[in-house]
Design brief:
The protein is α/β, with parallel strands linked by helices and 482 residues long. The protein contains 14 helices and 22 strands. β12, α9 and β13 form a beta-alpha-beta unit. The longest helix has 22 residues. The N and C termini lie far apart (69 Å).
Length: 482
C-alpha cells in the first residue's frame, strides 16, 4: 500500500451505501505540481460493479417514488455539507490537479450551487396538457425519470463535471453510478460524502474508481443502465456512444473543443487581452471550451498579438497551493509531451513563437504559457485540441474570412468574439457554428444554461432545464370519456 499524504485523505469506492478503501488491485494518485505520490486508490473489481448495478436499481425504486420536495431537501442539505468542508475539499482538488486554490474553491462552491439549482428547478416540472378534444377526459404529456444512469467524468474539473451530471439526474428522480477520473478521485468523493451525510438513501448514488474500459463496458452492457453521460475526449466518446447505441440506450456526449476567438478591429483590445489571458490560463488550458485559435483583424493584429504574448508569458507558474501562483501544471508527463509536440510541429511548419514553447526545468509538469503567431493551416495545432497552455494568433481581413476559418475544424463546442458593434455581434453570433458562443467575454457556462456541442464536440446538453430533460423520458397519456 502506498504511503498516504495525510493532508490528502484516502480514496474509496462507494458501493451500496458503503465506503470501500481496499480491493485486490490499486493505483496511485500523483500530484502534478511536484510528482509526489499522494495516495493509492482502490480499483473496482467486476463484483463491485455488479453490486453497484443492483444497488442502483433498488435505489432508483426508492428515489423515483420520493416526492420532489423530499429529494430537494436532501440535495439542499448536501449542498450545506459541501460548504462546511469546502476548504478541505479545495485543498484536495489542488493537490491532485495542481490548479490555484482559488479556482478549486470556486469549483467546490459550484458543486453546492448545482445541487441547489437542480433540486429547485426539478420541482417546477408539471404535466403539459394538450388542448381539449371531444370525447377525451384528458390529454397530457408527462416527463418521468429515465432510470439508473452511468456517468463518466474527466479529471480537468474533477468535481463539478461529475456533479453536473449527477445533480441533474438526482433532481428528476434517477439513481446514478458515477465513475470520476482515477487521476483525481478525492474531489468528487467529497461531494458523495456530503450526500451520504445528508441522508441520501442507499443505492441512489454509487461511485466506482478503476479501469475505465472495464467499468464502462460492464455498466453500459447492463440492462440496469438506461442512460449514459460522458465528458471527455472525442475518441473515447465515440466508443462509448457506439456501445450505448448497440444497446439502444440514449446518451449525452460532451466531447472535445477547439474554440476560435474572433477579434474585430472595433473591439476594446486591452479588455480582450486581459480576459483572454485569464481564460487561457485557466486550468493551464486544460478546458474543453478554452480559447485556442485567435483570429484578429488586420488593423489590430500587431497590438493584440504583442500585448497578449507579453501578458500571457508573464504569468507566475507554480503549485496551486502557493498564494502567488497564477497558473498550475498540466496533468501528466504525457500531457507535457503532447503539448510540446504541437508547438514544435507548428514552429517547424513556419509559425512564429512569440513566447513560451518549452517545458520548465523544475519538478512537476509545467509548460510555459505559449503564443504562436502566423500559424499555417497545415500545422497540427490548427485541427487538434491542444488541451494545454497554447494559443494561436492569426490575422484576418474580412468578416467572411474570419467565419470560414473559425468554423473550419471538426469541433463545435465553444466560440467567442470581441467587437464594439451590436450589428457585428449579432452577425457573428449567428455565423459561428458552436454549441456555446460568448461575445465580449468567455462566460458561457452557468447553472441554468445548457452545456453541449455539435459534430465532433458531441450531442445533447448538460446543465439548465435542458440538462434536467436529458434524464427524463416522455410519456403521453390519453384518457377517453368512459
Amino acid at each position: 500500500m502506498t504511503t498516504q499524504n495525510p493532508e490528502y485523505g484516502r480514496p474509496a469506492l462507494f458501493v451500496d451505501g458503503k465506503w470501500i478503501t481496499d480491493t485486490p488491485r490499486s493505483g496511485e494518485v500523483i500530484n502534478p505540481a511536484t510528482g509526489e505520490v499522494l495516495a493509492s486508490f482502490p480499483i473496482a473489481e467486476p463484483e463491485h460493479i455488479e453490486l453497484a448495478l443492483s444497488s442502483a436499481l433498488s435505489g432508483f425504486e426508492v428515489w423515483s417514488n420520493m416526492a420532489p420536495d423530499a429529494r430537494a431537501r436532501i440535495m439542499n442539505n448536501a449542498a450545506a455539507a459541501i460548504r462546511e468542508k469546502s476548504e478541505e475539499s479545495a485543498r484536495h482538488m489542488t493537490l491532485e490537479l495542481g490548479k490555484p486554490l482559488a479556482d478549486s474553491r470556486a469549483e467546490v462552491e459550484n458543486c453546492a450551487a448545482l445541487l441547489e439549482w437542480c433540486a429547485k428547478a426539478a420541482t417546477e416540472q408539471q404535466d403539459r396538457p394538450l388542448d381539449a378534444r371531444p370525447g377525451f377526459e384528458s390529454l397530457k404529456v408527462r416527463k418521468e425519470p429515465i432510470g439508473p444512469v452511468a456517468a463518466f467524468a474527466p479529471w480537468n474539473f474533477p468535481a463539478s463535471l461529475a456533479a453536473r451530471k449527477m445533480a441533474s439526474a438526482l433532481a428528476v428522480g434517477c439513481s446514478v453510478i458515477v465513475k470520476p477520473a482515477e487521476e483525481t478521485p478525492m474531489s468528487f468523493i467529497a461531494i458523495v460524502k456530503a450526500l451520504d451525510f445528508a441522508g441520501l438513501p442507499r443505492g441512489v448514488v454509487n461511485l466506482l474508481i478503476g479501469d475505465p474500459a472495464q467499468i464502462s463496458t460492464q455498466l453500459i452492457a447492463s440492462p440496469v443502465i438506461r442512460k449514459v453521460a460522458f465528458t471527455g475526449s472525442t475518441t473515447v466518446g465515440q466508443k462509448l456512444a457506439a456501445m450505448a447505441g448497440a444497446e439502444a440506450k440514449p446518451s449525452v456526449m460532451e466531447l472535445g473543443g477547439h474554440a476560435p476567438v474572433v477579434v474585430f478591429d472595433d473591439a476594446d483590445i486591452d479588455r480582450a487581452i486581459g480576459l483572454s489571458v485569464v481564460a487561457k490560463a485557466r486550468n493551464a488550458g486544460q478546458v474543453c471550451v478554452a480559447p485556442t485559435r485567435y483570429l484578429v483583424q488586420d488593423d489590430v493584429y500587431d497590438a493584440f498579438a504583442d500585448g497578449f504574448a507579453k501578458a500571457f508569458g508573464a504569468l507566475k507558474l507554480g503549485d496551486g497551493l502557493q498564494p502567488d501562483s497564477q497558473m498550475g501544471p498540466v496533468l501528466s508527463p504525457a500531457r507535457l509531451e503532447a503539448v510540446d509536440a504541437l508547438v514544435q510541429d507548428a514552429v517547424a511548419k513556419g509559425a512564429r513563437l512569440l513566447t513560451g514553447g518549452r517545458r520548465l526545468n523544475r519538478p512537476g509538469n509545467f509548460y510555459a504559457p505559449t503564443v504562436l503567431a502566423d500559424v499555417p493551416p497545415e500545422a497540427r495545432v490548427m485541427q487538434e485540441e491542444p488541451f494545454g497552455p497554447i494559443a494561436v494568433v492569426n490575422r484576418f481581413s474580412t468578416f467572411e474570412d474570419a467565419v470560414s476559418v473559425a468554423n473550419n475544424t471538426d469541433f463545435a463546442l465553444g466560440a467567442y468574439a470581441f467587437t464594439g458593434s451590436q450589428e457585428t455581434a449579432d452577425r457573428i453570433s449567428d455565423a459561428l457554428d458552436a454549441g456555446m458562443v460568448g461575445i465580449n467575454g468567455y462566460s458561457v457556462v452557468f447553472l441554468d444554461s445548457p452545456l453541449g456541442g455539435r459534430r465532433y464536440s458531441g450531442f445533447g446538453s448538460e446543465g439548465g432545464y435542458e440538462g434536467l430533460d436529458a434524464y427524463r423520458i416522455t410519456k403521453f397519456i390519453s384518457q377517453a370519456v368512459a
